Amino acid sequence: MTKKPYILVFALALFSCNQRKEAEANTDFKYFDIKGYFGKEISRMQQLNPDVDKTVSINEASENKKSKIADWNKELAIFVNADINKTSWKGSFKTVKQNGTDVYTSDSKKIPIKKISVTQHGQQVDKIEIIIDNKNILYQSQDTLTYYPDSVYAIKKKQKIKLLNEKKYSIIGKLK
Question: Could you tell me the pTM of the whole model?
Answer without folding.
Answer: 0.81
